[in-house]
Fold this protein.
Amino acid sequence: MIRLKIITEGQTEESFVRSLLAPHLAGHQIIAIPITIPTAVGKRTHRGGIGSYTRMRRLILGSFERTGAYITTMIDLYKLPESFPGMQEAAPITDPYQRIQLLEEALRLDIDNRFFIPYIQLYEFETLLFSDIEGIDAHMRVYTRSRLRDLRNILRDYPGGPEYINDGEMTAPSKRLLKVYPSYRKVLDGSQIAKRISLGPMREKCPHFNSWISGLEELSRRQPI
C-alpha cells in the first residue's frame, strides 16, 4: 500500500478526504491521511485557512518520512497569502488554468522533494459542489424552498464549467452559495453535499480536480518507495 498525506486547508477539506477521497484511493492501494493546517490566533489554535505560507511550508516539510509516503495538498486558490510562491508572477494571468499551473509549479520548486505533489483547488472547495447543482439544492431544500433556478443562473455565466467561477469577495463559489442559501454552513453542509454528489460529477465537470485525482491514482503503479 502507498501512504499519501494530504495537507488540507480546513475541516471541510479534511472531511472530504476522509469520507470520499480516502475510500476511493483505497481501491487503488493508497492509504490517504488528511493533515489539516493549524492556524494559531493569539494563544488559541483553530483550524481553517492556510494562514501564512511559512506555517504551511513548515508543516509540509515536517511531514516527509525517511521512507515511504507521498505528500500532496488540497488548498484553495481563493485568498492565498501574498507570500505564497509565484503570486507576483501569477497576478496578471487571467486564465485560471494557466494561473494555477504557474502557482503549483512554484510551490513544487519551493518544496523541492520528489515525493511532493502540489494541488491548489480552483477557486475553493465549493467549486466542486457546483458540479451538481441538483445535489446542492436537494440537500439545502431541508432549510428553504428550492433555489435551483438561481444556481442555474450562476452556471449560465460560466459556460467553461465550475472551475471558472471566480474568486471575488462576493462572487467566490462559497459566497454565491451563501447568497442563495443564507443557512449554508461550510463544514457541515459542504461535507454532506459532497457525499451526496460523489466524485464522479466532480471529476467530469472539474478538469483540474480530475487531473489531480488521476495523478494520485497513478501512484500505486510506481515502484515501492
